[in-house]
Amino acid sequence: MLFRSDQLNNLSTTQLSALTADQVGALIEAQVTGITTSQYAVLPTTQLTALTTTQIPWLATAAISNLPTTSIAALTASQIGAFTTDQVRALTTDQLPALSTDTVAGLSTTDIGAFTTTQLQAFSTDQVQALTTDQVQALATDRVAAIDTGALKGLTATQLQALTTDQVQALTTDQIQSLMTRQITAFTTADLNALTSDQEIGRAHV
User: Fold this and answer.
1) Could you tell me the CA-to-CA distances from 167 to 12, 110, 147, 200 in Å, in that order?
2) Is-contact 126 101, C-beta < 8 A?
3) Gap between the Cα atoms of 86 and 111, Å rounded
4) For residue range 78-135, what is the model confidence (pLDDT) as tens digits?
5) 15 pLDDT band (50/70/90 cuts)?
6) Mind spelling out the 3-state secondary structure of the chain?
7) Terminus-to-terminus CA distance in the chain, angstroms?
8) Is the separation of the CB atoms in 121 and 94 below 8 Å?
9) What is the tens place of the pLDDT at every residue in 39-58?
10) How many angstroms separate the CA atoms of 168 and 144, rounded?
11) What's the chain's Rg over C-alpha atoms?
12) Cα torsion through 76, 109, 125, 49, rounded to 10
């Protein structure tokens, strides 16, 4: 690589854009961290998507939270899957809707479990529907209770059946009321028996 890590942060956007995919993929940790947050914010997607899954964890959380939504959308499922827990939590509510459904489905259960309630509330219906059964079970009860009622209505029978009893009990009355009859019938007998009295009232209004 022609540039030292202390030189990279002095490169112009034009100069950074001139780096080839092979050059970007060859950057060592000190060089990846040497690129500033403001530089990453204007880095063309061609260069950004050239970062390997080994390099992705080296990105500062500030750099990630400042990436434009077009850059977030361009990241591959493998790249997002390489995010550390801190990096996952750095994604803003404006960035999250830019993740493709394939990318969401490719997230590890650890990543899914790392999302805050505020982040999960930013998920679109399509993104919630893309969650695998393992990912659904990885959601903490307070995260389940935070899912938007509109998005919750998009859950499939398979996803609902994957909910643990504790997760079902965490559903709010408003969430229960938002479910359609076909979704209620997807609950197991054990789940239905575990509903609280308030939830039963909500169920009666479905």
Assistant:
1) 50, 17, 12, 15
2) yes
3) 9
4) 999 899 999 999 999 999 999 999 999 989 999 999 999 999 989 998 999 999 999 9
5) confident
6) CCCCHHHHCCCCHHHHHCCCHHHHHCCCHHHHHHCCHHHHHCCCHHHHCCCCCCCHHHCCHHHHHCCCHHHHHHCCHHHHHCCCHHHHHHCCCCCHHHCCHHHHHCCCHHHHHHCCHHHHHCCCHHHHHCCCHHHHHCCCHHHHCCCCHHHHCCCCHHHHHHCCHHHHHHCCHHHHHHCCHHHHCCCCHHHHHHCCHHHHHHHHCC
7) 63
8) no
9) 899 889 999 999 999 999 99
10) 8
11) 21
12) -10
Which among 162, 129, 122, 125 is positioned nearest to 143, based on CA atoms? 122
pTM check: above 0.85: no
Pick the range with the lowest mean pLDDT from 117-131, 151-165, 178-192. Answer: 178-192
> Alpha-carbon distance 45 to 15, whole Å?
14
What residue has token string 């092979």? 22
Type of residue at 66 = N
Residue 1 has pLDDT above 70, yes or no: no
Going from the C-alpha of 112 to that of each of 30, 42, 100, 117, the distances in angstroms are 29, 28, 15, 11
